[in-house]
Amino acid sequence: MERRAPVYTLERVDSTNTRLKELARQGAPDGTLLIAREQTSGRGRLGRSFASPPGGLYLSMLLRPPRAAERCASLTPLAALAVRRAAAACAGVTPAIKWPNDLLLHGKKLCGILTELSGSAQAPQLIVGVGVNVNTAPEDFPEELRESACSLFGETGRRVALDALAQRLAAELDALYAAWLRDERSFLEEYRAACVTVGQEILVLQNGAGRPARALGIREDFSLEVEYADGSREALRFGEVSVRPGV
After folding, report:
1. In what side-by-side order are the strands of the sheet with 240-243?
2. 112 and 44 in contact (C-beta within 8 Å)?
């Protein structure tokens, strides 16, 4: 099916999210995509930088969903599933998902996703940014990331055609978003099956500290239900967790 929204392709950009925000201010429609092969100022969660060397695929999608902002949290898990599907189709590997949106291959981070929300509570605007390590050689990662990050090429020994992966990822994003518009829980069971956080001993990271907990399951709103050592439970809708090593 032909896309109604435009697709912009650039070789090099400061940040696909930043550039797409500019297009959004100019009136870009729901579903607009911006794709690049290199970012010079990639951004991650909590203001962190995101390493974006050549050989990766960097893509951002503009969403103007006809929903209240509080109902849009599942759009980030949606993006994680789209990457998982695209990697399976184009590289023959199926990454796992660490709640809520990190893609892992052989225990290392393959992809990061950053969703930025703006607009009003009743008319939200989201920019979903995806960075996939595709053909990056292991030695091309910053030294501090070589033990924790990976690429499709580094893990499989096979290079992936970036254009083919970009097209497949765009198609998966479109399909999942269309399904989400019909039913916000349409891909819940697929996400549950892909999420490896459930059942793990974790640290819930908040305000610079980690609180030990056990991940119990994914609820219908895609929040992570956790149980703390004192028996209390909480449903995490946003945030960051870390799997506790050696537990």
Report:
1. 233-236, 224-228, 209-218, 201-206, 240-243
2. yes
Distance of CA 189 to the CA centre of its chain: 18
Write down the pLDDT at residue 72: 95
DSSP code of residue 182: H
H helices within the chain, ranges in order? 16-25, 75-91, 152-156, 162-182, 188-194
CATH number for the domain formed by residue range(s) 201-243: 2.30.30
Which pTM was predicted?
A: 0.91
Which CATH number is correct for 7-194, 3.40.50.720, 3.30.930.10, 1.10.10.10, 3.40.50.1220?
A: 3.30.930.10
Report the DSSP pairing between strands 209-218 and 201-206.
antiparallel
* Cβ-based neighbours of 107, under 8 Å, separated by 6 or more: none
Domain boundaries, the chain: 7-194, 201-243
H helix count then E strand count, the chain: 5, 12
User: Is-contact 201 247, C-beta < 8 A?
Assistant: yes
pLDDT digits (tens, 9 = 90+) for 94-148: 999 999 999 999 999 999 899 999 999 999 999 999 999 999 998 888 888 889 9
